[in-house]
Amino acid sequence: MIRGLIRLIAIFLFVTGCAVQSTPDGGAKDETPPAIVGSYPANRSTNFTGNTIEIEFDEYVKVDGFSSQFISSPPLKYKVEHKLRKKTLTLTITDTLRENTTYTFSFGNAIKDITENNAQTEFKYVFSTGAILDSQIVAGQVIDAYSTLDQKGVMVALYEGDAEDSVFMKAPPLYYGLTDEHGHFSIENVAPGAYRLMAMKDLDFNYQWTGAAEALGYIDTLLQSSYNPVVTIPLFKAETPYKFYRAKYADFGKIEMYFSKPPGALQIERLDTVTSEYVIERPENGDTLIFWTNIWKSGSTGEWLITHLETGTQDTMSVRFTDKDTTKFRLDWGTKPPFSPTDSICFSAKTPIVQFDPSKIHLILDTLHTPFSIDYSGVRSLALSTRLEYGQTLKWIVDSGAVTDMFGRVNDSFAQGFKVLNDNELSIFHMSVRSDSTFPKVIEIFNNDEAILYRNTFTDDINISLYDIHPQELKARVIYDVNENGRWDTGNYFENRQPEKVIYLTKTVELRANWEIEEVWNIR
């Protein structure tokens, strides 16, 4: 009896010990996407006549986001219906298919296994309604015309070579594809022939270009698909006609005016009173203007007649005033110390400055007044200029009433000490740009905040030296200035004008304190 009991305990301990020691781990993670076992009709069939396709996988799958991931090239008018049963995906085509046409169905990342969400992204189902399966490929990349960054989710479309110029605004393409996260596209199974190629950000998913809100790109020659061409397409926003959209009261005396594009010269006349004044603040290349007015009553409505001088277009701007003057007038640094000897030293205000008295502004070095000059550097800022030396410590003193804003308010007394950096705390940057062409060009050197430190025009070569600049990272771009207006211009498809070409220095130049960097950039 006792022996039997001891034997049972021993067996229990042995089994328990074995169970603890042999606990299995999870094994290697499944990273294999579902594989296609077969399809009916078979993939790459010809003389296709049905409307149902079955695709069988080697494991149970699920379908996520079919409507947004599925692509048919050529496009279909009606959506393809799908149904999933166990390991089989059934597609039902409700369109009438074109004769003698090769169709390519792509599924994006919609098809995944049910355990680890591994997506089958490589599979494409191809069939032809004729006796021949077309095999030409048109491939390439779409980039932003100005930034040159890759453009994801852009529709690249092919149209018949003899189609009218505006076909991309009226009809779906013969073939199309979408760019991936790197801007690459591949339109496969294209019939041999000559095609127009267009790229567009199809925001409303109607397979057509519907206006300037959708970025556009094009190749200005016909593509011969038999050569399997590979192209790069610059994408740009088309120029829009001038239009005044609306105005919004933003703050004390401040109105934001919204336009379809930078409006250029305007004439603005107050309609509800004749005694008010205004100041316009124009952000560089911006389609929003800041309009400052100095007379209103809270709860009242102001009206202005806006005349666009280039087109003669007139609009009425009406704004309801709701805020009282709760903003105290004060001056702040427009540029932050410490300064370099080459820095522009600015004071700024939240409201427009209309008057200043230089006799009430002083620059003190030790105990001595130091000569300087002062002038406007913008609607709301003053620039103070003087000769600065490395390591100096100075003090600005602004007496009460030295500066007046457009509302008749004056500043309180203001004093601020600041230091000029030593030369070993600053950097020097030299750049030599070499070109084998004499095409007119613009070079811009800018930092990570897109602040432009240097801009100039040149033709074949240019040597640039920037002294006493703050340690920072610098970038550079060159604009091929076709119309020689000193800035970048977008394209116009209907004038067959591509956007001006922009190239970027392929690296960022890091400037550190007490460094002197030389960079040679060879361009075409």
From TrEMBL:
Pfam families: Big_5. Keywords: Signal. Residues 30-129 form the SbsA Ig-like domain. Residues 1-19 form the signal peptide. InterPro entries: SbsA_Ig (IPR032812). This is SbsA Ig-like domain-containing protein. It comes from Phaeocystidibacter marisrubri.
